[in-house]
Amino acid sequence: MDYTGKEELVNPDRYTASNGMQVFDVIDAFGLDYYVGNVVKYVVRHKKKNGVEDLKKARVYLDHMISKYEQED
What we know:
Layout: H1 23-29, H2 34-45, H3 52-72
């Protein structure tokens, strides 16, 4: 696919490990739900994309999950 100077939208480098494994493969292999999958996604890509901003995004999903568990107790 040619995106003519635009960022690669399918399998971008920020989601690919040096061995070619995709973060989406890990999410699928472990059967992670939306919230956990997003935590993994943002933590994995933070060094290649938005740094601390992505870690803060991961924290939003973690905080939501923690809140849900605390309400169940």
